[in-house]
C-alpha cells in the first residue's frame, strides 16, 4: 500500500507462493447494474451505461470474493482507486481505501458484511474528490509482497458531483429543484420577444448512451488538470470556454450569418445528443450554434456531471463590448437613426445557464445560482467564456466579484441612450430609456411545463430606492453609466403590441400624444427592418417620413390630444427579406418642430411560424411499437422547398430526419 507501487499482476512473484495459505482474490462485483442498490441510491439508474456510476460524498458498495474467509486480525487488503495517467496520493489521484477503522484516508471504508468468502465493503468518496472516470484495484499484503488485480474494464467506475450530499459544494436542498435541474431530460427554452414569448422544446438527453464519456472528453480535450476537476467553479468556467470553438477547438461553431450550407442550421437542432456524440467521435467542432444551442448543450453537460443547472432567457439583452452600462443609438440632426454609426445592439433575447453551487472563493451569501454563458461574446482571461458569476452579486451590484459580473450586470441593467450627432461630430444625449433592457428573465418552472419569472433575482424593481443604490455601487466598482437625464419631450409616442402570423398583412398603429397646451408638429421617421434576434439588421423593407400635427390638450377637462398614424404592412414587402426566427423591428424617431425635442419608440414583432402538429398512438406499452406522426400544412400561396423535418424523443427514439425536396 505504497503510493509508488506499480505492480499490477495477480500472479505470484515467487515460485514458493502458496495461494491456499494466504488471502487471494477470486472475483470482484462492482454491483453496477441499474437495478442494484448503488445506482438506485445514487440517482444514476437512468444512465444508459453498463458501468458503476456513483456520486461523491455518499457510500457505495463493492463485493470481493476471496479464496477463503477474510480474517480481520491477520489479513490486510485495500481497494485502490486511481484516475489520470500518473496517479499520486499527494494529488488525490491515487486513493487507497482500507476496511479497518484504525487506518482511514480521505475516502472512508468499512466492512458491511462477510458471508463465507465474500466481503461486502462500503466506500465513501470524499465530498470534494475529483469527478471523472476511475479504475479500482484490489491489493493484498502477502509475505511475498503486494498482490494486485490486473487492470480490467469491469472495475471502471464514474464518480459525479452530488447535489444530494450536504458536504458537496453543489448541494441543493430542494428535491423539486433537484429533480428538475439534475434528473429532467426534456426542457423548454424561451425565445421571441418579451411581449410575445415563444417556446422551444429541447431534449437534453444527459443519460443517453455515450453522453457521460462525451462530457468527460470535453475536459480531456482542453487538458484541464485532473486535480481541478473536483471544483465546480473551475469545471464550469473551463466548460464555458470549451462549449464554443472560438479559441480552443471546442464543441460548437457559432454562426449568425444565415448561411448554414456546410452544417446544420441552429434552428434545426432538437437536442444535445447528436451534437455531443458527434464532437466525441469526430474530435471536430460541430456546426452550427446560436445562444440557445450553446445554453442547451451546456445544460446537458452540467446535468450529466451532477451540477444542478437550468437555461435562462433574458429578454432585451444588452451586448456590452466597451465596459459601460449604456447602448447608444445615434440620430442625425433631424432625428433620423444613423445606422452606419449605431454600433451597439440589443438582442431580442439571450440565453445563458445558471448552475447551483457554493462559492467558497467569495464572501458568505454569494453562493447559490451562478451565471455561466458559453456563447462567445467577449473574452475573459484570454478565452471566450463567461462566469460563473453570482446572481446575488449581480442583483446587489457587487460587480467586483469573479467571474465576469460586470458583463452580466450590463446585460440586464444597461440604459438605451439616444444621441443626436451634430455636424462637428459631437454627441448630445436627448433621451435615456432606463427600463428597456432586461425587461424579463425567464426559466422553466420545476415540475411542470409553465414558465417562471426570475427577474427579481437579478434586479430590484425599476425606479426603487434599492435599484438606485445598486447602480451607484456598480458605478463605484467601475461600471460606466449615462449620467445625463434629458427632460422628456412633451409629445409621447406609443406603439401597441402586435401578434402577427408569418405571411399575414397587418396594420401598424402609431399614436402621437400631446401633453402640452400648444399645438405640436412632429417630423417623423418610420423604419421597418428584418433583423436577426441579436438586433442586427438584415434589410430595411419600410421607410416613411410623415409629418404629424397634434392639437393642444383641452384645458377644461385636461384631456390629452392624440393623433394616430396608420400604416398598412403587406406581407409581400417583408416575406422575401426574412431571416431565421422572423423578427421585424420598427423604430420610429422624430423631431418636434416647435421645441426641437426628440421622440422615439421601438417595437419588435416576432412573426409566428405555422404550427407543427405531433400525434402519438394511444395506449403505449413497453416493448411494443408506437407510431409518432408529425403534420404540417403549408399556409402560403407558394411552394416551400428544401424542407427538413426533424424529430426525437428522450428514451423513445433517437433523432430522425426526413427531407422534402
TrEMBL record:
InterPro entries associated with the record: Ig-like_fold (IPR013783), Ig_E-set (IPR014756), Papain-like_cys_pep_sf (IPR038765), Transglutaminase (IPR050779), Transglutaminase-like (IPR002931), Transglutaminase-like_sf (IPR036985), Transglutaminase_animal (IPR023608), Transglutaminase_C (IPR008958)
Catalytic class of the enzyme: transferase
Residues annotated as catalytic: 291, 350, 373
Catalysis performed (reactions): L-glutaminyl-[protein] + L-lysyl-[protein] = [protein]-L-lysyl-N(6)-5-L-glutamyl-[protein] + NH4(+)
Superkingdom assignment: Eukaryota
Cofactor: Ca(2+)
Classification via Pfam families: Transglut_C, Transglut_core, Transglut_N
Cofactor: how and how many bound: Binds 1 Ca(2+) ion per subunit.
Name of the protein: protein-glutamine gamma-glutamyltransferase
Native organism: Sphaeramia orbicularis
Amino acid at each position: 500500500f505504497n503510493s509508488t507501487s506499480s505492480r499490477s499482476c495477480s500472479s505470484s512473484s515467487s515460485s514458493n507462493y502458496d495461494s491456499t495459505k494466504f488471502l487471494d482474490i477470486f472475483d470482484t462485483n462492482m454491483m453496477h447494474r441499474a437495478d442494484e442498490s448503488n445506482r438506485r441510491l445514487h440517482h444514476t439508474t437512468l444512465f444508459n451505461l453498463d458501468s458503476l456510476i456513483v456520486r461523491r460524498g455518499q457510500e457505495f458498495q463493492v463485493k470481493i470474493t476471496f479464496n477463503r474467509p477474510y480474517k480481520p486480525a491477520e489479513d490486510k487488503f485495500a481497494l485502490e482507486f486511481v484516475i489520470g495517467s500518473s496517479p499520486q496520493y499527494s494529488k488525490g489521484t491515487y486513493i487507497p481505501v482500507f476496511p479497518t477503522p484504525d487506518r482511514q484516508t480521505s475516502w472512508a471504508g468499512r466492512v458491511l458484511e462477510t458471508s463465507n468468502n465474500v466481503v461486502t465493503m462500503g466506500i465513501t468518496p470524499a465530498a470534494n474528490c475529483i469527478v471523472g472516470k476511475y479504475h479500482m484495484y484490489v491489493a493484498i499484503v502477502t509475505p511475498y509482497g503486494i498482490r494486485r488485480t490486473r487492470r480490467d474494464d469491469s472495475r471502471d467506475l464514474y464518480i459525479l458531483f452530488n447535489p444530494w450530499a450536504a458536504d458537496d459544494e453543489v448541494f441543493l436542498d430542494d428535491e423539486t429543484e433537484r429533480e428538475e435541474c439534475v434528473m429532467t431530460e426534456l426542457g423548454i427554452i424561451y425565445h421571441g420577444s418579451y411581449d410575445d414569448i415563444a417556446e422551444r422544446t429541447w431534449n437534453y438527453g444527459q443519460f443517453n448512451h455515450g453522453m457521460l464519456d462525451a462530457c468527460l472528453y470535453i475536459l480531456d480535450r482542453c487538458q484541464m488538470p485532473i486535480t481541478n476537476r473536483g471544483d465546480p467553479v473551475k469545471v464550469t468556467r473551463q466548460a464555458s470556454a470549451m462549449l464554443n470553438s472560438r479559441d480552443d477547438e471546442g464543441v460548437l461553431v457559432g454562426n449568425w450569418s444565415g448561411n448554414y450550407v456546410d452544417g446544420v442550421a441552429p434552428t434545426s437542432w432538437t437536442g444535445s445528443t447528436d451534437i455531443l456524440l458527434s464532437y466525441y467521435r469526430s474530435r471536430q467542432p460541430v456546426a452550427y450554434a446560436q445562444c440557445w444551442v450553446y445554453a442547451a448543450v451546456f445544460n446537458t453537460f452540467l446535468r450529466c456531471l451532477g451540477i444542478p443547472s437550468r437555461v435562462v432567457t433574458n429578454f432585451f439583452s444588452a451586448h456590452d463590448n466597451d465596459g459601460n452600462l449604456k447602448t447608444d443609438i445615434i440620430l442625425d440632426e433631424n432625428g433620423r437613426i444613423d445606422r452606419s454609426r449605431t454600433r451597439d445592439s440589443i438582442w431580442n433575447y439571450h440565453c445563458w445557464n445558471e448552475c447551483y453551487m457554493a462559492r467558497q472563493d467569495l464572501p458568505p451569501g454569494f453562493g447559490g445560482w451562478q451565471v455561466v454563458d458559453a456563447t462567445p461574446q467577449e473574452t475573459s482571461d484570454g478565452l471566450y467564456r463567461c462566469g460563473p458569476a453570482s446572481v446575488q452579486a449581480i442583483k446587489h451590484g457587487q460587480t467586483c466579484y469573479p467571474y465576469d459580473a460586470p458583463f452580466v450586470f450590463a446585460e440586464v441593467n444597461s440604459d438605451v441612450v439616444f444621441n443626436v450627432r451634430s455636424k462637428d461630430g459631437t454627441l448630445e444625449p436627448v433621451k435615456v430609456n432606463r427600463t428597456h433592457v432586461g425587461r424579463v428573465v425567464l426559466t422553466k418552472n420545476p415540475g411542470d411545463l409553465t414558465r417562471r419569472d426570475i427577474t427579481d433575482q437579478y434586479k430590484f424593481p425599476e425606479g426603487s430606492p434599492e435599484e438606485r443604490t445598486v447602480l451607484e455601487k456598480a458605478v463605484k466598482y467601475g461600471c460606466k453609466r449615462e449620467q445625463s437625464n434629458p427632460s422628456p419631450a412633451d409629445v409621447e409616442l406609443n406603439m401597441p403590441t402586435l401578434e402577427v402570423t408569418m405571411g399575414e398583412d397587418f396594420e401598424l398603429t402609431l399614436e402621437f400624444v400631446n401633453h402640452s397646451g400648444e399645438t405640436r408638429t412632429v417630423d417623423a421617421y418610420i423604419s421597418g427592418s428584418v433583423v436577426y434576434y441579436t438586433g442586427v439588421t438584415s434589410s430595411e423593407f419600410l421607410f416613411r417620413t410623415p409629418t404629424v400635427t397634434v392639437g393642444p390638450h383641452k384645458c377644461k377637462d385636461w384631456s390629452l390630444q392624440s393623433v394616430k398614424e396608420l400604416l398598412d404592412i403587406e406581407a409581400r414587402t417583408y416575406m422575401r427579406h426574412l431571416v431565421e426566427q422572423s423578427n421585424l423591428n420598427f423604430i420610429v424617431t422624430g423631431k418636434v418642430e416647435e421645441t426641437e425635442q426628440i421622440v422615439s419608440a421601438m417595437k419588435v414583432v416576432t412573426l409566428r411560424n405555422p404550427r407543427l402538429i405531433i400525434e402519438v398512438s394511444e395506449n403505449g406499452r413497453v416493448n411494443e411499437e408506437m407510431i409518432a406522426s408529425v403534420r404540417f400544412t403549408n399556409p402560403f400561396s407558394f411552394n416551400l422547398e428544401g424542407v427538413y423535418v426533424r424529430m426525437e424523443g428522450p428514451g423513445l427514439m433517437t433523432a430522425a430526419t426526413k427531407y422534402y425536396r
